[in-house]
Design goal:
about 260 residues, four-stranded antiparallel β-sheet
Length: about 260
């Protein structure tokens, strides 16, 4: 998920705020729907490459592998990052854009206008429609999709990436307020962390990467860590964390981290 920071800086206060708000909404919905992501700045993104292997294309950077690149609403993208993204698209890599695509040249030698060809649309016209709050139509071109709403973006992404875990609400309250994060531990075990951020008790059905399903009950504001086929933490365990005042962190080594509240 590429950070639209340069577009925010060059769009004025009103549109810059709107870009940040839509960026946050997209992140929240991806988290709630189990779409694991990493926010990457354009400079770091430019250090990666699209790699085609065994019939699929991934974006790889510093040992990490990504099935898809997601573009939040933006008007421009740095030259080197844009070049790598275009290479990824031309190899058949999956890209999902939301509302708009880069169209504005901000560095000499940029190929930013080529995004219009990749997505089969006019980036400048899209940006104008986005600024005016017009309804945009979702369009899929090759391995790329430009979504006209966050819901349509999420829908397209969930059909194009490997969803290892599946969470379904069986209490009629829907998926809202149930962010999840999944991954593979150093021991090779697939694990899932789920949080009930609402004040209501929730009843869920969980399906792990091996296709096994079971029921899970969460009390209000309860979180659970799951492993394939089982729960790693008893329901009665509770950790209280005070957030008033300053918080001190001690780093064991170099690590880029983003904190948001």
């Amino acid at each position: 998920l590429i950070d639209p920071i340069t577009s925010v800086w060059t769009s004025g206060r009103e549109m810059g705020t709107r870009l940040l708000e839509d960026f946050a909404r997209l992140q929240n919905q991806m988290l709630y729907q189990g779409l694991d992501y990493y926010i990457i700045d354009p400079e770091l993104f430019a250090e990666g490459d699209g790699v085609s292997e065994r019939g699929s294309v991934e974006y790889r950077i510093h040992g990490e592998r990504y099935e898809m690149v997601v573009l939040p609403p933006m008007r421009n993208l740095e030259r080197d990052a844009g070049g790598k993204l275009l290479e990824f698209a031309r190899k058949g890599g999956k890209i999902c854009g939301l509302y708009s695509i880069p169209f504005e040249d901000i560095q000499e030698g940029s190929e930013v206008r080529a995004f219009g060809e990749i997505f089969g649309t006019d980036g400048e016209a899209l940006w104008s429609a986005y600024c005016q709050g017009k309804k945009l139509v979702t369009k899929e071109t090759g391995s790329c999709c430009l979504a006209g709403s966050i819901e349509e973006a999420i829908g397209w992404m969930t059909t194009k990436v490997n969803m290892n875990w599946e969470i379904n609400a069986v209490d009629g309250l829907g998926r809202e307020g149930l962010p999840i994060v999944s991954g593979t531990g150093e021991d090779g075990a697939e694990r899932l962390f789920v949080v009930n951020t609402s004040g209501n008790a929730r009843r869920l059905e969980v399906r792990d990467p091996h296709g096994r399903s079971w029921k899970l009950a969460l009390e209000a504001y309860e979180s659970r860590r799951l492993e394939c086929g089982c729960c790693l933490e008893a329901p009665h365990k509770c950790l209280t964390m005070k957030v008033e005042g300053d918080m001190e962190f001690e780093l064991e080594g170099p690590n880029a981290i983003r904190l948001g509240f």
